[in-house]
């Protein structure tokens, strides 16, 4: 039986900005020295973020959407190229091996798009298929992973998935709206690429896979669709984020995860690792509480939140990279549950299987 495995990961990050410095030198004025805003920034669980547009040197809050999209086109391609190149090198593949290039992004658009730019710069074959996944938000990595895996299994060819988000391009004008403060305290930029390869588990070249995709599940609660929105305005994309999101997640996360596990003959104690999208500290606290997880199980998610912030669709791949690179899964195989949340409200979960011997193919350093 052929399955799809994540055989390589690579990430690329723009310059870093310290959260404390961002607040003291820009956002405290942007939010009129609001005590509420100060408290939100301090409690966001973020130490630093990476941004293609640093507000300390370039305030884009008054830019038109058209200007922001032009900047997206300029910045996205080199960042994406670095991430994909690193992932391909990690997996030991060449451009001729790639049968599908999938790109997930909700922070910028152009046509010809990023997928076409990358196909050219990576010198992919002219018959390489392309898939662009847009405007799904923070959970996009998992449906994108599922689509890429389906291609790998059906075609028995390699696929590359790039999740790239440039949230810093969407800095909004000054406001006293707490929802805007929360989004500006959390979000950062990143590009992460994953290589998926067909694997049958036998043969002379069948080394243990890093992470095998076993199953995917999703749930959307349309009655809460106004809790999280990402609207295109004349001044960039504007996020609206309700404080009730963790409450909705608390209602659904346990039954969705239990169902995913039970249909694969597993239960919560069987899970070897948890890769949870760090949408914010309350999100992680809610997942930990509802699933009765020990605190250390979400260490990778909290580290990514602290070091990168919430990078929308690129965040969950960063968590997987953190888990693999830190050796959390290196001393034995087992089930791994990944989950992410976004507009809808939508909860996506995936069951992965980590193989023993993961440390034999180390994750490359971030470029």
What is the fold's blueprint, element by element?
Blueprint: E1 3-12, E2 16-18, H1 19-30, H2 35-42, E3 48-50, H3 65-91, E4 98-105, H4 114-121, E5 129-134, H5 141-155, E6 158-166, H6 178-186, E7 189-199, E8 211-220, E9 228-233, E10 236-241, H7 245-262, E11 273-276, H8 281-290, H9 299-308, H10 315-325, E12 334-342, E13 346-354
Parallel strand pairs: 4-5, 4-6, 11-12
Antiparallel strand pairs: 1-7, 1-8, 2-3, 6-7, 8-13, 9-10, 12-13
Helix pairs in contact: 1-2, 2-6, 3-4, 7-8, 9-10
Structural features, described:
The chain is an alpha+beta fold and 367 residues long. It has two domains: 3-199, 3-Layer(aba) Sandwich (Peroxisomal Thiolase, Chain A, domain 1); 211-360, Thiolase/Chalcone synthase (Peroxisomal Thiolase, Chain A, domain 1), CATH 3.40.47.10. The protein is built from ten helices and 13 strands. A nine-stranded mixed sheet has the order 5-4-6-7-1-8-13-12-11, sandwiched between helices. Strands 2-3 form a two-stranded antiparallel sheet. The protein has a two-stranded antiparallel sheet with strand order 9-10. α2 runs parallel beside α6 and α9 packs across α10. It is globular, with a radius of gyration of 20 Å. The two termini are 35 Å apart. Residues 357-366 have low confidence and may be disordered.
